[in-house]
Specification:
single chain, 197 residues, alpha/beta, Leucine-rich repeat, LRR (right-handed beta-alpha superhelix), seven-stranded mixed beta sheet, 3 helices, 7 strands, 28% helix, elongated
């Protein structure tokens, strides 16, 4: 898992291949474009909520992506062809595209494995495809150790958890910084004597 939320990131740069990463948190940044995610070929969970993204694009290199949070961006028109077919959870709340005529029907028709759209469960809307889909969905569900749920409050709980983790991380960083400063003061005193200013 990589957590880079609230880090003032403005773009996703090119990285070396990181096949072991299954979850990527990039919410509450300044990202304008979805790009360079092909270095995460096994990504299952992607959170880009609260950025400045205007288009859904460049997600096709993520064949295992199950959960995608693009809520509270600036997406005006949604091209469902750009969404990975294995998506089971999709959140686009807070984007203008959700006001498109027939938006929900369009998304459900495009994503055969979708279980939840914008924090609302899919009530059998995709069952018209036949009886074999349930076994396929079972295979696509991520392992239990990956953060994944279909509860109604999934993304709300996730945001709350991430906010707590962000605060913890800042506190730990501050404590580490203070410990380093203290260590540097002790070294300085050893080298120069305690009275040095």
């Amino acid at each position: 898992t990589i957590r880079l939320d609230r880090e003032n990131i403005s773009s996703i740069g090119k990285l070396r291949s990181l096949g072991e990463i299954h979850s990527l948190y990039l919410q509450q940044n300044h990202i304008k474009k979805i790009e360079n995610l092909d270095c995460f070929p096994n990504l299952r969970f992607l959170c880009l909520a609260g950025n400045r993204i205007q288009r859904v694009e460049n997600l096709q290199p993520l064949p295992h992506l199950c959960a995608l949070d693009l809520s509270h961006n600036q997406i005006q028109l949604l091209d469902t062809e750009e969404l990975p077919r294995n998506l089971q959870l999709l959140d686009l709340t807070g984007n203008e595209c959700t006001l498109q005529h027939g938006y929900r029907e369009l998304v459900v028709a495009a994503l055969p494995h979708l279980l939840q759209l914008d924090a609302q469960p899919i009530h059998g809307e995709e069952e018209e495809g036949g009886g074999s889909s349930s076994s396929e969905e079972e295979e696509l569900l991520p392992e239990p150790n990956i953060p994944f749920t279909v509860d109604r409050d999934f993304f709300a709980d996730l945001r709350q958890e991430l906010a707590g983790r962000s605060q913890r991380r800042r506190r730990e960083t501050l404590e580490e910084h203070q410990a380093r400063l203290e260590e540097l003061r002790e070294r300085r005193d050893l080298l120069l004597g305690p009275g040095w200013e």
